[in-house]
Amino acid sequence: MSVSAAQRLRQGVADLFAFARPVDRALAAEYLPPELLALFDRLQRGEQLHSLSVLRAVLAQGAAPRELAAAALLHDVGKTHYALRTWQKTYAVLVRALFPALARRWQSGDARRFWLRPFVVTEQHPAWSAELLAQAGAPETVIWLAAHHADDARQWAEHPYCNLLRRLQAADDAS
């Protein structure tokens, strides 16, 4: 997965103005049972809008299994462990671009330290998403896709869900 600086800038501006955009909760409810919709509701508004954008991108690719749609909506739910502000996300993007070795070192830090939190959340949110989804009774496919959405899909080339993972990653990168 590779997201350009221009895409990150667009995401940051969208997050900054998320308060002004409506969240189509009814669309999310079409693909999520109540226990998973409750997880969607925990996401920050900007993350909900991003997740809906990922869902729309997945649907634009063609027929999508319900599990892929659910993963599109909930792949970032682990970010609810530590809600990040727009400035924290921007700070992390800048540090990763300018000081990648430092950013990699900070990924394994203590999320209670505010300057490390964005790096830890970036690194850990897929695993946290999978945990939350498992606790809510999500299907195995949804849990696996959330757990691996930030991985290099090439390492999963032989896995039965690899095609779904590639579709999710393409939609996520485009959103």
Largest sheet: none
Distance between the termini: 12 Å
Number of domains: 1
| Envelope shape | globular
Describe the protein in words.
With about 180 residues, the protein is an all-alpha fold. It is built from ten helices and no strands. The model has no long low-confidence stretch (mean pLDDT about 90).
What is the strand and helix layout of this fold?
Blueprint: H1 5-16, H2 25-31, H3 34-42, H4 45-60, H5 66-74, H6 86-98, H7 100-106, H8 117-135, H9 140-148, H10 162-174
Helix pairs in contact: 1-4, 1-6, 4-5, 4-10, 5-9, 6-7, 8-9
List keywords for this structure.
175 residues; single chain; mainly alpha; globular; 10 helices
In brief:
This protein is mostly helical and 175 residues long.
